[in-house]
From TrEMBL:
SUPFAM superfamilies: TPR-like. This is Photosystem I assembly protein Ycf3. TPR repeats lie at residues 130-163, 164-197, 198-231, 262-295. SMART domains: TPR.
Length: 395
């Protein structure tokens, strides 16, 4: 190796070493990551330039490092701005939610809540509508506090005297308290405010029936059926009113027109059962059971058949036998009482002075005196009835 070649190798090594030092110290004019640039008190300092130490290879290395550093600074700056923006939006959102006095409120997503939004915390209504008092009263009624319920209904009527739901609520509350006259008056007002509400006519008819106005009650319930034709509930109520008025045939006709035959006969049996007519109830139950073949295709018929069997079993069981005896007891009592009165009259006549016993009139026993029944015979036994079914939903 010649001396000239050795010199060239030494120069190359020195050049590479210098380039490495420039990269680490940041003293290159290419704008590398100088430590002086991170000093906030040295923003205007000029970077130190070193001449005669750069080669084409060193420029490429320093340029890459500088570009990488610049990109990293840009990413950090962008991330910082994004975090700052998100923090600002979150702070504004939270402040908006918990600041009801602010003119523009925002939700959790940073969206402005309209000023007329009913869910705004600062949106207070000018007045409370009657529907709020009605709903509140119904809640009180479910708890059993009827006084509180009536108080809220009256507040609703004070806000709107012709409010139909409030009038109907008061009417039903009065009916629940067995104040049928007051209930009827409120139902009349409710019907005037809501003339197309079938349920009001139905309930009004029930109140009239409780007052003994069966004919007027039937007409009122028929108006409910005219508004809502085919409604079985209204038809069953109408049949009940007709039955209470002594029109059992018309009641059965009404039930048959609006129910399946099995359902109609079961409902009629239930009316007879409640009235104490157990033989007639048994007759209607047997008629209902004659449609048992239709039970597989109709759920309503199946329920009527099942309940007919249950009620018939009660009538034929021990409780039913007791009920039959209790039902027959008044008739036996009347017959025995009439017989006793007849015997006493005969005995009294036979003891009259100068009266001679006849062939068909036995003489009174002078020792025992006239024939008398036991002292407690005239005490009519208390009627014992069978247990009534608790489920009337099939009606």
């Amino acid at each position: 190796m010649t001396k000239q070649t050795k010199n060239r190798l030494q120069i190359s090594k020195r050049t590479a070493l210098g380039a490495a030092l420039l990269v680490c110290s940041g003293c290159v004019s290419g704008g590398g990551p100088s430590l002086a640039g991170l000093n906030p008190f040295n923003k205007n300092a000029e970077p130190t330039q070193t001449a005669g130490m750069e080669t084409s290879e060193s420029k490429g290395i320093t340029g890459t490092v500088a570009a990488t550093a610049q990109g990293a600074r840009g990413q950090v700056s962008t991330m910082s701005s994004a975090v700052k923006s998100a923090y600002g939006k979150t702070t504004s959102s939270i402040a908006g939610i918990f600041s009801p006095k602010s003119e523009e409120m925002v939700d959790a997503m940073g969206q402005t809540i309209p000023a007329d939004d009913p869910l705004r915390l600062d949106n207070k209504p000018d007045s409370i509508g009657p529907e709020v008092f009605v709903a509140n009263g119904q809640l009180w009624e479910t708890t059993g506090d009827l006084d509180k319920a009536l108080e809220n209904y009256n507040k609703a009527l004070k806000a709107e005297p012709t409010n139909a739901p409030a009038l109907a609520s008061v009417a039903r509350l009065k009916f629940r308290q067995s104040l049928y006259k007051e209930a009827s008056d409120y139902f009349r007002q409710a019907v005037q405010s809501a003339p197309n509400d079938a349920s009001l006519y139905n309930d009004w008819g029930l109140a009239l029936s409780k007052l003994g106005e069966h004919e007027e009650a039937a007409k009122t319930i028929q108006k409910a059926l005219a508004i809502a034709p085919g409604t079985a509930r209204y038809a069953n109520v109408l049949a009940s009113v007709q039955f209470d008025a002594g029109q059992s045939d018309k009641a059965l006709e009404t039930l048959t027109q609006h129910n399946k035959p099995a359902v109609a006969h079961f409902n009629m049996a239930y009316l007879e059962f409640n009235q104490g007519n157990y033989d007639r109830a048994r007759l209607q139950l047997n008629k209902a059971l004659s449609f048992e073949d239709d039970a597989s295709d109709d759920s309503a018929v199946r329920r009527a058949i099942d309940r007919s069997k249950e009620l018939l079993a009660r009538l034929d069981g021990p409780a039913g036998q007791i009920a039959n005896v209790a039902q027959a007891a008044p008739q036996a009592y009347d017959a025995a009482k009439q017989l006793s009165q007849t015997v006493n009259q005969v005995m009294a006549t036979s003891q009259q002075p100068g009266a001679e016993p006849t062939a068909d009139q036995p003489a009174a026993n002078p020792v025992a005196g006239p024939f008398t029944l036991p002292p407690d015979f005239y005490k009519q036994p208390a009627a014992q009835t069978a247990q009534q079914p608790s489920d009337t939903s099939s009606r």
